[in-house]
Amino acid sequence: MRIDSVDIGRRASAAVIIYEALKKAIVDGQLADGAPLRQDEIARMFNTSRIPVREALTMLEQQGLVETQRFKGAVVAGISPAEASEIWEFRALLEGHVIERAVPNMDAEVIETARGYLIAFDKATQPSEWGDLNRRFHTHLYRASGLSYHLDVIEKTLDRVDRHLRAQLSLSNGVRRATEEHEAILDACAKCDAARAGALTRQHILGARSNLLDHLPGG
């Protein structure tokens, strides 16, 4: 099992440390869909008992990152075509609304920082870089909305699907297409055209959904 473990011994925050390590491994795609998460093995890796491991797995299950299967125990949660379609549709609605609210609050610094992420994204060569920079680009723009609850929901939703987003970017012309669409979104933001930024964001996300569904088993 590939996760970044540490020796936590008797530290009171053991469950949180295990939770964060497992979450990162799942979101980054180091642990594949359906990968078993054996409590004994994880406890040995972190030099602790099974109690904080169970607590960590419960937290991950509440976020939809882990599921418990009969006879198998805890495994990394997969995603079906129907779930992917619903999640991407939800993202399009929510993120389109948030960026519309954000645009009137954007200043030159917000635009230039986003442009830096866009340039780095275009130069990146690894899926892990694409996924991270794609997320930074979008969430940076969304923060100008000041809608903290909406942003928290977006972050949790992205945690649920981030590894699939990385896979989608790696498919066919995903990166080139994303770069062009990011440029159009940023241009609309720079011109203070909130309606266009919202429409382009929704189109961008739904286009990614179609690309992903074409490659998901059963899609």
From TrEMBL:
A Pfam family per the record: GntR
Database matches in InterPro entries: GntR_C, TF_FadR/GntR_C, Tscrpt_reg_HTH_GntR, WH-like_DNA-bd_sf, WH_DNA-bd_sf
Keywords: DNA-binding, Transcription, Transcription regulation
Residue span, HTH gntR-type domain: 12-79
UniProt keyword rRNA processing, yes or no: no
Annotated GO MF terms: DNA binding; DNA-binding transcription factor activity
Highest taxon, organism lineage: Bacteria
Protein name: HTH-type transcriptional repressor RspR
Origin species: Albidovulum aquaemixtae
